Amino acid sequence: xxxxxxxxxxxxxxxxxxxxxxxxxxxxxxxxxxxxxxxxxxxxxxxxxxxxxxxxxxxxxxxxxxxxxxxxxxxxxxxxxxxxxxxxxxxxxxxxxxxxxxxxxxxxxxxxxxxxxxxxxxxxxxxxxxxxxxxxxxxxxxxxxxxxxxxxxxxxxxxxxxxxxxxxxxxxxxxxxxxxxxxxxxxxxxxxxxxxxxxxxxxxxxxxxxxxxxxxxxxxxxxxxxxxxxxxxxxxxxxxxxxxxxxxxxxxxxxxxxxxxxxxxxxxxxxxxxxxxxxxxxxxxxxxxxxxxxxxxxxxxxxxxxxxxxxxxxxxxx
Length: 318
Hints:
There is one protein chain. The protein is about 25% helix and about 25% strand. It has helices spanning about 15-20, 50-55, 70-75, 95, 120-125, 160-185, 215-225, 255-260, 300-310; strands at about 1-5, 25-30, 35-40, 45, 60, 80-85, 105, 130-135, 145-155, 235, 240-250, 270, 275-280, 285-295, 300. The strands form 3 sheets. It has a 7-stranded mixed β-sheet with strand order 5-2-1-6-7-8-9. Strands 10, 11, 12, 13, 14 and 15 form a 6-stranded antiparallel β-sheet that branches. Strand 6, helix 4 (about 95) and strand 7 (about 105) form a beta-alpha-beta unit. The protein starts with a strand and ends in a 10-residue tail after the last helix.
């Protein structure tokens, strides 16, 4: 089967490797985003997909896949199918019509749940215990095409977004291969999505990382895991921005008068020999594991206490 592969980040790499290694497929070309300056030094870097494909197949990096040049490229190759994973551009209808088996997308949710740019992050942020992978036939909408195959995946109780993404990327590779083979054999009947059941996973923004201490410690922990590594979870301390990592404390057996007095304000710090904790919504507490104040290195909770000469009663968020 003659394939064109479109993808850009690390999440797409396992599937590309799987297709290149499988004798059922001939990867005629790889399409990925142009090399761009990244990081503080603005050094030009290539995509994770390009690094894998560089010595194996023809590479095409259009500024816009909507251009006439892009159309001519796909029309010249005439692939049987195009596999697209986190490519980073919207595909115009005239390109969708070129391959005889269509464009197949691997999406990191059980569609129609979590359509959009950040399904892994939002599944964790929303406290889901399961998520999944979907292969779908691409159409002009936003993750609205008919479903080919799906696999449900449990989310670990402490799993972060990068950890889950890495696991899902590896599990997605064989699902794409199986879907392509069954589609070619006529063993899959594409199933239209039930749009009334759709939910959305919009692109992450920096401000979504700001901690709302009125949430419960469990809800904040979902955000710590789901918003890693960017934008991370942060608050302010003595007027300075600080990133925070932690996990819910075990419920206290008793709460003395002093604790009850300061526990009224979410964001209040409680310092003891055993731990540094923050009062959250509904009286729950988040145990602080590490902190990074802007312009400084990340330190443990105890190092933060010692360096700031911290005492109970101070607050995050001010």
